[in-house]
Amino acid sequence: MAGAPGRAFPPRLRTADPAGVDVVLLDAGIAGCVSVWQKNGGRLDAGRQRTLLHCARELERALPLVTDAEELRYLLRLGRLAELTAAL
Description:
By secondary structure, this protein is mostly helical. About 60% of the residues lie in helices and about 0% in strands. The longest helix has 19 residues, at about 70-85.
């Protein structure tokens, strides 16, 4: 997955759903929005901004249940990527 640059998607998260959050779908959604942001010269439509903020909130809900350090780092970076992209 391409969500958090420079990091491979942690394998266990492919089947985990902390707090009922499908991390694979969040990763894909964020990656898609970031890709559009890059292709549009740093611009996003309102719908994709809302998607990114929703994904960031979902990640916040899941984070307290993630105990593996590698997984936690990945998800924190992914959430930060979503927040930064939505804000610009």
